[in-house]
Design brief:
Layout: H1 5-12, E1 17-22, H2 28-47, E2 63-67, H3 70-89, H4 91-94, H5 100-113, E3 118-121, H6 122-132, H7 134-137, E4 144-145, H8 148-163, H9 166-172, H10 181-198, H11 205-208, H12 211-242, H13 249-260, H14 269-279, H15 288-291, H16 293-312, H17 318-348, E5 351-352, H18 354-365, H19 368-377, E6 380-383, H20 391-400, E7 404-409, H21 423-435, E8 439-444, E9 446-451, H22 452-465, E10 485-488, H23 491-494, E11 498-503, E12 510-511, E13 517-518, H24 522-540, E14 545-547, E15 550-552, E16 559-563, H25 569-578, E17 583-585, H26 595-608, H27 613-621, H28 629-638, H29 645-650, H30 662-678, H31 687-697, H32 700-705, H33 710-726, H34 732-745, E18 762-766, H35 767-770, E19 775-780, E20 794-797, E21 801-808, E22 819-822, H36 826-849, E23 852-861, H37 869-879, E24 888-890, E25 920-922, H38 923-931, H39 933-941, E26 958-959, H40 967-982, H41 987-995, H42 1004-1019, E27 1028-1040, E28 1043-1055, E29 1058-1065, E30 1068-1069, H43 1072-1094, E31 1098-1105, E32 1113-1116, H44 1120-1138, H45 1143-1149
Parallel strand pairs: 1-7, 1-8, 2-3, 2-6, 4-5, 6-7, 9-10, 11-23, 11-24, 16-18, 16-19, 17-18, 19-23, 25-28, 29-31
Antiparallel strand pairs: 12-13, 14-15, 20-21, 21-22, 26-30, 27-28, 28-29, 31-32
Length: 1150
């Protein structure tokens, strides 16, 4: 394998500590994989006697590899497995003949050991440690781990209990003078979670958060800060003082003061500052700019900022300090009660949350016998994404002290501060490794992902935004930029591929309904511009996407829109829908706010309270019924005073009322039927089945099918049903309460791991969710949005523990604005937190820009908010004018019509005020229809089971070797085994994994030999040199001639840029030639789907009848007339289905 010099240095280093700064797209996953394999290879060389005992060599069991998500851990394990298998199969190329068998066995042992290897997350590693040493750790041998949502739901119940308790209310009443319940809940959650991410163990919260200690620490901190700012002031001021003219009276006084200042002067900062105030003039004289520039600069640029800082370092009065202590004591009591109740709730469940796992693992690792045991077992520890670690996680490494540590991260990509990540830890490691003789620091700076022109833009911009020069005064959380180099530096890659679209700010309000002024919607305008720009790129058809060393035109799946937060998602979705742009949203962004979710919950809320007017009206107003305000007024006029709305509908009193129109009567009749079908809520089957039935039979699913982007909407409701099914409660009221809590939590939840959806759709996700992903074309909207800072009135800080602010009304002056009060360090911590948020925002901007492979589009309303990405970009362009040459700037994007797929010859008729639902057909349905319309009618329209159908087709009968082996089940198992083979599994592993699909163990013997025979014959395809594997089991949903076609292609190979589709058949037949004729249309359907979704051309189609071996491999000549015939068939089927055609229509066709 080819590696650059930086990568080689990382892979082959034998230093005990290796710290790697892995820039975006620098191939760190390849390096981690190869490092792992290299360590094993060194162990093999030692066993072969090729070298003395290798200091670095180790087996799989002796290596721990930690990453930050389960998905990343799985991918790393799969890559290592693939690499080991590659070496195992090619031992003849790497070792002497006498070593082949030994080497092959060694690598097989390592591969087998991977199943139990510690390639995992920090939390899973902690879980394993606690499980192994349960007695020493004092934990139950079998405990459950609460995920974030489960933990938060328990916490919500505890808060409700605490704040509803009369006893606690009386005790904490003074605290309510300063904070609301909501503020206290948020503060408790924030302080508690941050404390547990940093501190190993707190025996007593009240003693740890002792108010006397806290105030003392903070007053000492103020004194230390005063010393620090004064020291820096005098250091920076001395050069100016040396230039002052002593003949000037003011200058002479300053010079004398500076001459009297010694190191001892800084021991009493307050006295020194008073002396400084006495020495400097009270105010600046603008004439000094001409007459005395050093004095003007000293006063304006150094002394004035010092005065502002000094104000913030003024401590509270003794009266305020007493009150602050009382508030801290009360708050800590609340925190203590919460801690005790939360711990009790977890003990009752024999459960731990993620913080408990870390804390208890660290406590366990403090024991010398555990440290020694771990150090003996784990010679190597490899940490990925080290910039996202917290203090407890780093402590694990310190306690274990493995012989070799391999740390990979990139401070520039640290964006998870809200989860407790501390980028300063990575900074400290980098600094240490640069100085330590037993360590290697390696900067992997070659980017293999992104075009050179985008990298040039990123380098110039972020050198200015982050700063390249490091200062001794910089805090550890500040990351300085280091350049990355692009490997993709061809002629096309050097063309400008960065756009900045600025949308002029709408200053004037616009007229709204009934002459009322509306505020201009700049954001909606920006998203409309984005939609038009995407359409422009698609319509122009420029080759701006790189695909295997060739440039092609883009498809929708090449686009990604990365958003900073979810707050404006609905506006973005609206703009895309209006233009007919297909999209998919990831990561639970705004999940509970989506219309289809609200509609389902409206239905469930009515079902829970079917007799309450509020829920009846909500249901009638929903899209499921669509009752207008005028209809509501009609109902209200008809209601008699003593008749409830529910009775009016349930008893059908509306039926004979002449004041209610026929359309409204029909709607109310539908709701009356709902009462008869669904009330009361009494599921006879599982909760999941009941809700799935409700979704279907209520008509909500059918209604969603009428919408654009309908498959995504249906999947969203199905996901909601999955969530509902997880709750172990028979009470619908309790279930809906739990869902409401989840909806409230969704704003604060972190991003889920992202698995990119298949299909031709634009990808929408937050920048956080996009970490580790890449896209050909990236849009970054809303650059003018400012960074989100912390706004808590009570905050945790690891150095001074708790800081707080509050408002206090003036005595005898209640109408005047209250005084703001602060604990001694609050202002400093607030400033520090704000600065940390700005620094992280810079890193988030960097992560966002480096997701783009081929094209980057930035957009913003032309109103830069302070510290927004747009503000940063404008300042960078001012500081380095060459940046403008790397950006195509525009404010004009043409308006485009709604997107229509090209090449559609058939346009279905439009129905006024109705959305047309697209009929859907599986490939099997189309095949059945083409060969026997009557059988299709019985099977797919009437829904008669296969065993009741009379076989009418002339298709040659399949032959089974054993009547108790299901052909369908055998096919499923064989297809799975073939897929695994193509993904690097050995023959034995693939068969074993595939046979695991069998539900009954006694079936294994029936299928094992048949699977083995077929999979062995599948391997023979390698002899045909068909090309490299492109995809297996490639599922698709594609629109063809106004219908949705659903299917799955067994195997796709690619050779010299040409694509070959192969369908695998596992049954034995007595007439292969006739089968080829029968299945040809199926392959043409696959070809049409693949070409439409990927915009790639298919050059070959083949069937492989596996029972026949290579003799059963049959290629099909491509005939354009067949595609035309299939299109006509689909139109015909659509017409029959949409017109609800009877059996005689199918008979006439047959």
């Amino acid at each position: 394998m080819n590696f650059n010099e930086e990568q080689k240095a990382a892979i082959y280093s034998e230093k005990p500590l290796v710290v790697i700064s892995a820039g975006a797209g620098s191939g760190k996953t390849r390096v981690l994989t190869e490092r792992f394999v290299y360590i094993c290879e060194e162990k093999l060389k030692e066993r072969l006697g090729k070298k003395n005992k290798s200091p670095i060599g180790a087996t799989v069991e002796e290596i721990v590899a930690i990453t930050f998500t389960e998905k990343a851990a799985r991918e790393m394990k799969d890559r290592i497995r693939g690499r080991i298998e590659e070496i195992r199969q090619n031992v003849h190329e790497r070792y002497d003949a006498s070593e082949h068998e030994f080497a092959r066995n060694f690598w097989q042992e390592q591969k087998d050991a991977l199943d139990g290897a510690l390639i995992t997350t920090f939390h899973s590693f902690c879980h394993k440690l606690l499980g192994e040493y349960a007695f020493l750790a004092d934990v139950p041998p079998k405990f459950t781990v609460l995920d974030d949502v489960g933990a938060k739901l328990i916490q919500i119940d505890i808060f409700d209990e605490m704040f509803d308790s009369p006893e606690y209310h009386r005790k904490w009443r003074p605290l309510y003078n300063f904070y609301t319940r909501g503020q206290l809940k948020e503060a408790i959650k924030a302080v508690y979670s941050q404390m547990k991410e940093i501190i190993t163990s707190v025996e007593s919260i009240e003693s740890f958060f002792d108010s006397e200690t806290i105030v003392k620490l903070q007053l000492q901190s103020i004194e230390s800060d005063r010393k620090f700012v004064l020291t820096n002031f005098y250091k920076e001021a001395r050069p100016h003082v040396m230039e002052l003219d002593d003949s000037d009276k003011a200058s002479k006084k300053i010079t004398e003061h500076f001459s009297e200042v010694t190191d001892l002067s800084f021991e009493n900062p307050a006295v020194l500052y008073e002396a400084l105030e006495e020495a400097l003039p009270k105010k600046v004289n603008k004439k000094w700019q001409e007459t005395n520039p050093p004095l003007y600069d000293l006063f304006e640029y150094l002394y004035k900022p010092l005065k502002e800082t000094w104000k913030k370092l003024k401590g509270p009065s003794s009266v305020d300090i007493k009150e602050i202590k009382e508030i801290i004591n009360l708050f800590v009591q609340v925190l203590q009660v919460f801690h005790e109740k939360y711990d009790e709730a977890k003990r009752e469940r024999a459960a731990m949350d993620f913080s408990d796992l870390q804390q208890k693992a660290i406590t366990l690792l403090e024991k010398k016998e555990v440290q020694d045991d771990c150090r003996k077992k784990y010679r190597h520890m490899m940490i990925d994404e080290a910039q996202d670690t917290n203090q407890l996680q780093m402590n694990m490494l310190t306690f274990i002290q493995p012989k070799y540590r391999f740390i990979v991260g990139d401070g520039k990509q640290s964006i998870y501060r809200f989860r407790g990540a501390d980028v300063s830890l990575m900074n400290e490691l980098v600094d240490f490794s640069k100085k330590d003789l037993n360590s290697d620091f390696i900067n992997m700076s070659t980017n293999y992902r992104t075009c050179e022109s985008i990298i040039d833009f990123v380098n110039i911009a972020f050198n200015e935004i982050m700063g390249a020069e490091k200062s001794e005064l910089d805090p550890l959380y500040k990351i300085h930029y280091t350049n990355i180099n692009s490997h993709r530096n061809g002629i096309e890659e050097q063309k400008c591929r960065v756009e900045l679209i600025t949308i002029p700010k709408k200053d004037e309000p616009k007229e709204g309904i009934e002459g009322q002024a509306e505020q201009p919607d700049d954001e909606q305008s920006e998203f409309e511009v984005i939609a038009n720009r995407m359409l422009e790129i698609m319509e122009e058809g420029q080759s701006i996407v790189s695909d295997k060393d060739a440039w092609r035109t883009p498809s929708w799946s090449d686009f990604a829109i990365l958003i900073q937060t979810r707050t404006k998602l609905s506006k973005l979705e609206r703009s895309l829908k209006q233009k007919g742009i297909p999209y998919v949203v990831y990561g639970g962004i705004g999940f509970y706010e989506k219309q289809e979710i609200r509609d389902m919950l409206t239905l469930l809320n009515w079902l829970n309270r079917p007799w309450e007017s509020l829920y009846i009206l909500s249901l009638l107003r929903s899209p499921l019924f669509g009752v207008s305000v005028e209809d509501f007024l009609s109902i209200d006029e008809c209601l008699e005073e003593d008749i409830p709305l529910a009775t009016f509908i349930y008893e059908g009193l509306f039926d004979n009322d002449v004041n209610i129109g026929e359309e409204l009567k029909s709607t109310l009749t539908k709701l009356k039927q709902f009462y008869e079908d669904w009330v009361p809520y009494r599921p006879q089957v599982s909760t999941r089945e009941y809700f799935e039935d409700l979704f279907l039979k209520s008509g909500l699913k059918k209604m969603l099918l009428l919408q654009k982007n309908n498959l995504q909407q249906i999947k969203n409701v199905e996901k909601l049903i999955d969530v509902l099914a997880q709750f172990q409660t028979a009470s619908l009221d309790e279930l809906l309460k739990q869902v409401k809590q989840l909806a409230d939590l969704s704003d604060k939840e972190g991003e889920a791991e992202v698995e990119l959806a298949e299909g031709n759709m634009v990808h929408i996700m937050t920048v956080h969710a996009s970490k580790g992903l890449e896209f050909p074309i990236v849009f970054l909207p809303d650059l003018a949005k400012g960074p989100r800072g912390d706004s808590g009135n009570i905050r945790f800080d690891k150095d001074v523990r708790i800081v707080l602010q509050y408002e206090k009304e003036k005595e005898n002056e209640p109408l005047k604005k209250p005084d703001k009060k602060y604990s001694p360090s609050f202002e400093r911590i607030k400033e520090k937190t704000k600065d940390q948020a700005i620094e992280e925002s810079k890193r988030l901007f960097y992560v966002a820009t480096t997701r783009a492979k081929d094209y980057l589009v930035l957009s913003t309303v032309d109103k830069p908010t302070k510290d927004s990405w747009y503000d940063m970009l404008l300042k960078a362009m001012e500081q380095n004018t060459s940046l403008e040459n790397r950006i195509k700037q525009t404010s004009n994007v043409p308006d485009y019509e709604e997107w229509q797929e090209k090449g559609q010859e058939y346009e279905p008729p439009l129905i006024q005020n109705r959305n047309k639902v697209l009929p859907s057909f599986s490939v099997s349905e189309i095949m059945t229809y083409m060969n026997d319309p009557i059988k299709y009618y019985y099977k797919y329209i009437v829904k008669i089971e296969d065993e009741w159908l009379v076989e009418q087709e002339e298709l040659p009968k399949f032959v089974e070797e054993k009547e108790f082996v299901s052909g369908a089940k055998l096919g499923t198992i064989v297809h799975r085994a073939c897929e695994l083979l193509d993904n690097g599994y050995s023959l034995e592993e693939a068969q074993e994994e595939a046979l695991a699909l069998l539900e009954e163990e006694q079936e294994l013997g029936d299928y094992e030999q048949a699977v083995s025979d077929l999979v062995t014959k599948y391997q023979a395809l390698n002899e045909l040199s068909l090309g490299s594997n492109y995809a297996n089991e490639w599922a698709f949903i594609v629109e063809i001639e106004g219908a949705q076609i659903i299917g799955e292609i067994d195997k796709i190979v690619e050779k010299n840029g040409k694509f070959h589709l192969i369908d695998l058949k596992t049954n034995k037949s007595n007439n292969v030639e006739k089968l080829v004729s029968y299945y040809s249309p199926q392959l043409y359907l696959y070809k049409m789907a693949f070409e439409k979704l990927t915009r790639l051309n298919v050059s070959e189609l083949s069937l492989f009848f596996m029972r026949e071996g290579l003799e059963g491999f049959s290629s099909i000549e491509i005939d354009k007339t067949m595609e035309e015939r299939i299109r006509e068939i689909i139109k015909e089927m659509s017409h029959l289905k949409m017109t609800l055609a009877a059996k005689d229509s199918y008979e006439r066709i047959g």
